[in-house]
Amino acid sequence: MRTVTDVVCPFCGTLCDDLEVDIDDAEKICETRNACIIGDNKFMTAQAPDRHLHPRIRRGGELVECTMDEAINKSAEILVNAKHPLLYGWSSTHCEAQEAGMALAEGVGGTMDNTSVCCHGPSVLAIQTVGIPSCTLGEIINRADTVLYWGCNPVNAHPRHMSRYSLYKRGFFTERGKSDRTEIVVDVRKTETAKNADIFIQPEQGRDYELMNALRVALRGEPLPESVAGISRADIEKVAQTMKDSRFGIIFFGMGLTMTRGKHRNIDIAISLTQDLNTYTKFLIMAMRGHYNVAGADQVSQWECGFPYAVDFARGFPRYNPGETSATDILARKEADAALIIAADPGAHFPIDMVRTLASIPMIAIDPHVTPTTEIASVYIPSAIVGIEEAGSAYRMDNVPIRMRKVVEPPEGVLTDKEIIDRIHRRVMELQGLEVPEVTAVKEPAEASAFDGILQRST
Amino acid sequence: MKKITLRPKDKEYMFLDADNVTPDNFAGKTLDEVRAIEIYEGNRTYALGDYFEVSGETDPDPNEIGILIDGSVPKVKYIGMKMSAGKLLVKGSVGMYVGGWMTGGRIRVNGDAEAYAGIGMEGGELLIEGNAGDYLGATYRGDWRGMKGGKIVVNGNAGSDIGESMVGGEIVVKGNADLQAGIHMGWVSKKKDNPTIVIEGDAESRVGAQMTKGEITVLGKISYWLPGFIYQKDDQIDYDGKQYAVKVYQGDRGEGGKGTLYYAGA
Questions:
Q1: According to a count of CB atoms within 10 Å of the terminal CB, is the N or C end of chain B lower?
Q2: What pLDDT is stored for residue A437 in this prediction?
Q3: pTM (two decimals)
């Protein structure tokens, strides 16, 4: 029996880095401490007996087991023969795999898109339009005395966010934790988060933009109508005054803003509202990123080609226009003739018409687990679970990179996401008649391995 | 004026990037050279002649060239992109970005246009007889300078975000417009510019949201009022030879804007 400490949880964008995982002598994960229920589940089901350990390929309508070489070769053929392949997913894997994916996408002239497209992609568009005043979560621990959750429900979706960073945590200038903070929640439903809020505002559905516009008007002291979005003038003015009176405020926003009517315009005006508030006090805003490394997918894409997601390499240079080059729109308009889906499950989450398109084209699925996506794939390659069976870098929701730890060895024969992508890319280069560079073994940084030795203690 | 006709061949494709189909690009080329102009389907490059039957005659001067696309091409993108002169007529529907970044000349689309029509337009005229999609006369992603000049007329309905971040020029929609018409309008306009949008039908909410300069006229109804627009006075306007009684609003005051909204549907 051994215990691995300071484990980083590979589930949500909060990226908690204080987990402890017990592993028995048979290398089975038997217990976790400090994790929330979702994180605990991810660790406890990682080694489930029903996990598929062999690649499968579709023959005669059935997915049948095949060798790894066969699966890699078939994947490369699919991508090379495609005129407009879509490489989508990337959010539940590490930055190293995403980097390899960017190279592959450029190599095959495809479109590289990550799950931002169905979560905080609109936030990115808004940031590109009006900028963003933001900070790291550490600052919020120590300073924030007004915390506004708009269209997000951390109690259920980011369970440890409030206790680790934003609400209950005691900090330097917030010694009494929650007692030192005012919690405001704006949501169309009375969520678990809303239940213990100091101020709860419940606007009409799809009228967040108008409500924020009203708040901006109130801040400027201009006349307001009787009510906006079902909220009375008095309540709007009260919220505006509370925000003005704070010493350090933060707005957290989620899918309730990014995926409702107006999308990036809701974020655009939320950021503009934050900017307005800085005339009176310090106010900041942050996106509640969902997948643990979706922020990293944006980062990698940006440092590789300048655009954060939905990058089309078809013409040999990167082009970016969500709405045209985004995975959802490409599938909706049937503009892809092959796909590679990794570390995401569009089969379960995309609208059915798009899933139909995915099912109708040759598709490679890379995922540790069997999902609705892998079941409609032409090739399925199982992979190791990043953050449990493989170390790697991930970005927290405040864009702080954190090194994830390896807790156990992956099952025998199962490759990591990066290895799979690299092997497909090498085979693609062979098929394209390009010179394939020699493989250089990638070593873990020396510091990281020394660190691992200290932190792994036997019990 | 010389006419050159492109008739779509009966050939299947996912979509085509036809950013070279402009009078500027055709000028001074022989028909065979026009047939050899590059057109792209995803990561493959083809010749224009592979997808279109090319006939007619060309001229060295782009002003003297009229391109006729004789059929519906809803999956062909970038037609008339960056054109500066001449005429282009599409006898049917077109794909995305028709007339994108155009600086002069005239484009007429008999059918519908997909999203991003007239995006970043600087001059010329774009007439869409059917419906237009989203982002008509808007900006490219991340740019804050939208349509700078020229005129776009849509006889049907338009999608959302039309005239986003418009600097100058004019958009007329004879049908209805969806959400956020004229959002961010005028925020980087120069003193002399006065971006203008006219919506003859109804508009969804958030008309002129975050606008700081320019004029929007809505003759129909606005479904939900944006609180940033503050009543100034009643007035009469003259539009298309008719008199309309309008209420005049200033906004978006949330943004500190001083744009004008003429609203006849109140």
A1: N
A2: 85
A3: 0.95
| CA triple B218-B221-B226, angle to 5 deg | 80
Residue A164 and residue A273 in one domain: yes
Instruction: Indicate the pLDDT class of residue A441, thresholds 50, 70 and 90.
Output: low
Residue A267 and residue A302 share a domain: no
Question: Residue A14 domain-assigned?
Answer: no
Q: How many Cβ atoms from other residues are within 10 Å of residue A237's Cβ?
A: 16
Strand locations in A8-108, DSSP E? 19-23, 29-33, 56-59, 62-65, 85-89
Locate the chain B residue with the closest alpha carbon to A315: B43
Q: Which residue of B has its CA nearest to A124?
A: B142
Domains in chain A: how many in total? 2
Q: In what order do the strands lie in the sheet with A182-186?
A: A199-201, A182-186, A146-150, A248-253, A282-287
CA distance, residue A221 to nearest chain B CA (Å): 10
Final residue of a domain: which of A224, A257, A287? A287
Residue A458, pLDDT above cutoff 90: no
Q: Can you read off the two tokens belonging to residue B15?
A: 């979509």
Per-residue pLDDT at B259 exceeds 80: yes
Question: CB contact, 8 Å: A336 with chain B?
Answer: yes
| Closest Cβ opposite residue B141 in set A125, A224, A335 | A125
Residue in B165, B166, B175, B187 with CA at minimum distance from that of residue B132? B175
The SS3 of residue B43 is: coil
Q: Are B140 and A109 a contacting pair at CB < 8 A?
A: no
- Please give the backbone phi and psi of residue A305, each rounded to the nearest 5 degrees, phi first: -140, 0
Among candidate residues A229, A263, A287, the one where a domain is terminated: A287
CA angle A46, A48, A49 (to 5 degrees): 145
Question: B214-228, pLDDT tens digit by residue?
Answer: 999 999 999 999 999
Spatial distance between the Cα atoms of A162 and B248, rounded to a whole number of angstroms: 47
What was the ipTM of the complex prediction?
A: 0.95
Q: In this model, does residue A204 exceed pLDDT 50? A: yes
pLDDT at A389 over 70: yes
Q: Say yes or no: A214 contacts chain B, CB-CB below 8 A.
A: yes
Using alpha carbons, list the distances in angstroms from residue B212 to A124, A338, B260: 23, 45, 9
Question: Quick check: B142 pLDDT over 90?
Answer: no
Rounded Cα distance between B256 and A218, Å, is 12
In a shared domain, residues A252 and A127: yes
Number of H helices, E strands in chain A: 19, 22
Q: Which residue type does A240 have?
A: A
Q: Which domain covers residue A175, as residue numbers?
A: 121-287
Same domain, A299 and A432: yes
Place of tokens 């100058």: B168
A302 and A245 in one domain? no
What CA–CA distance (Å, rounded) separates A89 from B31?
45
A29 belongs to a structural domain: no
- State whether A302 and A281 are in the same domain: no
In a domain, A15, yes or no: no
Angle between helix A95-108 and A294-305 (nearest 10): 50
Instruction: Look at strands A111-114 and A85-89 and give their pairing.
Output: parallel
Question: Strands, DSSP E only, in A43-189?
Answer: 56-59, 62-65, 85-89, 111-114, 146-150, 182-186
Establish if A24 belongs to a structural domain.
no
Nearest to A210 among B115, B184, B224 (CB): B224
